[in-house]
Amino acid sequence: MTPPKSLTLLKVLTVMAWADGLATQAELNFIKNLMLKFNLNVKEWEELKPFMEAPLPSDKQEALFTELRSELSTAQARASALEACRTVVSADGELDANEEKLLQEFSRALEGPVLNRSATGGLGGFVRNILPALFGKPDPDMERYFKREIFHKIELKLSGEDFQVDWQDDRLYLVCLLGVLLAQAAKMDGEFAPDEKNTLRTLVSRKLSLSENEAILFVEVLEEQVDKGFDCDEVISEVNRLVSFNDRLGVMDCFFAVACADGELTHEETEEIRRITKAMLIPHSHFISAKLKALDHIRKI
Fold it and tell me: Where in the chain is the domain with CATH 1.10.3680.10?
């Protein structure tokens, strides 16, 4: 059974995620990770479900913050809870005025005399010990899936070519992850134009030193996977683990390069790139800058 104070923290975290009016997938994924660590039962999942689906009315937030404060054991544990909330709020790469205000309110709610309880166990110890472990961990299920589904297809497609699939090659794994995202964004307008395919082939070829024919076959595999379907959120989580923030900015430019290769940037493509890059924790200001740069490039063609 989950300790009541653990459940209260999860409720508070969802309030933080909704502070700017939109709980992003990155924020919700972080909370879901915590929910799994707490081993919630069915009843507890149901109790948290309304908090995940919509923001808590402001008149109920103060009471929830006060409830959590009463359940925390030490000043250090309270600070850990506040840091957990800050992590959730900034999981989308930005911290706006509303989110900062809510954090300040939560911090004030945690102020007060330290409760005379153990400082080593309970929620405080859990938060201190588990938060660092939630990030940077590989997803073995996703890696196995991609290697089984995509690597195997690549082996079959390129069986008559010089390219050899190294199943331990992290670079190949990353190219596959990014490739399906790039192909999906380009196909959002219902068409994967020849120029878009050529641009993706060029990007893939540069990363893996493929011949022209190998690149053609490789992109065919990526397109087939997009048509079949894949868990976009899980793929993005793996990309976030494997790619630094600065490199993700470069990846965003690749999205626009592929989408604009046919001489236009459709609304559907733009929205998909926006959704993906937001989940990649790229601030909206960077997205707007890259979008304007792409549109300027189209006008000059």
Answer: 140-299
Question: Tokens 């409720």 appear where?
Answer: 11
How far is the C-alpha of 211 from the C-alpha of 207, rounded, in Å? 11
Residues in the chain: 301
C-beta of residue 3 within 8 angstroms of C-beta of residue 68: no
The closest alpha carbon to 198, from 226, 180, 219, belongs to: 219
Tokens of 25: 């997938």
Grouped pLDDT means (10 residues each) for the chain, 301 residues: 61 78 70 70 87 86 79 70 66 66 67 39 38 51 82 86 80 91 93 94 90 91 91 86 86 95 94 90 89 92 72
Does residue 157 sit in helix, strand or coil?
Answer: helix
pLDDT the model gives residue 20:
65
**Is the backbone of residue 172 left (phi > 0), alpha (psi -120 to 50) or beta?**
alpha
CATH number among 1.20.1640.10, 1.10.3680.10, 3.40.50.300, 3.40.50.720, domain 140-299:
1.10.3680.10
Whether 52 and 31 have beta carbons less than 8 Å apart is answered as yes
